[in-house]
Amino acid sequence: xxxxxxxxxxxxxxxxxxxxxxxxxxxxxxxxxxxxxxxxxxxxxxxxxxxxxxxxxxxxxxxxxxxxxxxxxxxxxxxxxxxxxxxxxxxxxxxxxxxxxxxxxxxxxxxxxxxxxxxxxxxxxxxxxxxxxxxxxxxxxxxxxxxxxxxxxxxxxxxxxxxxxxxxxxxxxxxxxxxxxxxxxxxxxxxxxxxxxxxxxxxxxxxxxxxxxxxxxxxxxxxxxxxxxxxxxxxxxxxxxxxxxxxxxxxxxxxxxxxxxxxxxxxxxxxxxxxxxxxxxxxxxxxxxxxxxxxxxxxxxxxxxxxxxxxxxxxxxxxxxxxxxxxxxxxxxxxxxxxxxxxxxxxxxxxxxxxxxxxxxxxxx
Length: 365
Hints:
Elements lengths: L1 H8 L1 H24 L7 H22 L3 H6 L7 H32 L18 H15 L1 H26 L5 H23 L12 H6 L7 H28 L4 H28 L3 H7 L6 H59 L6
Helix pairs in contact: 1-5, 2-7, 6-7, 6-10, 7-8, 7-10, 8-10, 8-11, 8-13, 10-11, 11-13
């Protein structure tokens, strides 16, 4: 309870601890992938994996005092000493919390106060366009809100990490030409699923403005450009994660550069189309009052719709890739997949633009 209140009052500390934990997780995955044998034989790997798990459990049991006693309490072989040792460890931890953690917490709370900002003379700033002002506002809101910044950072990191893990496993398996085509199809599926998860933040773009949205609409300018500013900021972050994913893909895969380029173009087109579709969900059905009252977007159904339609789109495109590659061959399959991607992106762009012009000024609640 005390730690939760501390982290709630210091959101940047929560973000830093989350990034540290994520860094250790990434390091662990990279170390685990370095242990994958080449060629990879799944049945033969099971015995080796279980053996290493048993060795790891034995080593942990040796260095962590009290773990064996805690495990013994779950079985019939427990003794009085097991109870005494576990209770003693709990008592020592309670004393440490009372004499160390609580003073540290109250000292931080006492020192944490709203600092009085002295008035400073600000130099004259250059006038910006409406679109530039909205873009700058979105960027500042991201960096001022640690939870939002953490979401963007996790999205930015998760794509290359998962692409590295999956393609390391694929590279360790001996495949023929049809196997390589299936690997490309699975990369499309995984990439679009990750993009769908990241684009879900855009399905809350209008609702997250809260009551300030009414003030925004009274501005004597083309305020609908805030939609394009939000799309630009989210699109740049999503595209950057995709590019980082393809950097890691180039390090571990033996796919040709043509395959990599076509795969990158396909994912970017579908990522942008899904981004527009996600924003359109919140444009047509905003939940501004819910966000203003609760201060959170956890109950916004548009996020679930965005993720659901993203997963469905990823599955359908993966099936298209498998069908086109196996029926039309390598180049014929890529041509048809790219045509589907361009057509889907163009349709979503036209529909979003039309809905934005009609429904933006009609948003009320």
